[in-house]
């Protein structure tokens, strides 16, 4: 058990997910719908996120670390085999795959929120699981207006 915990702390800079308070409220509302998600991969990703939210560090907007992935953050991730992707994490209504805007309600979106620059996550590809590294986190400082969302 001890090895699992220390292993997890090594791959996560802050030990747990870091989520801004208002975004946490919105995430919890989305997660409550997870039983209705038809896509198996998405449902599994959302269930994993629900588990991680249980131990998440919840901060006020003014306390948020600049290197943490949140709504409207630009993220660059890579794998050891050379796979590389840059995208913006957005609300489901702003999703636009062609323009690399990935919804929080996609397996990739649910997998990265709350992680920080330098963290690693295990990701399930059709060819099997791979370790992805979050190389770069860029804030747009266009954080969501919670009243607009719900």
Please, could you describe this protein's structure?
The chain is α/β, with parallel strands linked by helices. The chain is 30% helix and 27% strand. It is built from five helices and seven strands, in the order H-E-H-H-E-E-E-E-H-E-E-H. It has helices at 2-11, 21-31, 40-53, 107-112, 146-149, and strands spanning 18-20, 57-59, 73-79, 84-90, 101-103, 120-125, 128-139. The strands form two sheets. A five-stranded mixed beta sheet has the order 5-4-3-7-6. A two-stranded parallel ribbon has the order 1-2. Strand 6 (120-125) and strand 7 form a beta hairpin. The longest helix is centred in the N-terminal third of the chain and has 14 residues, at 40-53. It is globular. The model is unreliable at 1-10 and 146-150 (pLDDT under 50).
N-end to C-end Cα span = 40 Å
Please give the largest β-sheet: 5 strands, mixed
Over all CA atoms, what is the radius of gyration? 15 Å
Helix percentage range? 25-40%
Number of helices: 5
User: What is the tally of beta strands?
Assistant: 7
Q: What is the strand content?
A: 25-35%
The computed structural class is alpha/beta
The rough form would be described as globular
Query: Which residue ranges are poorly predicted, with pLDDT under 50 across at least 5 consecutive positions?
Result: 1-10, 146-150
In N-to-C order, the SSE pattern is HEHHEEEEHEEH
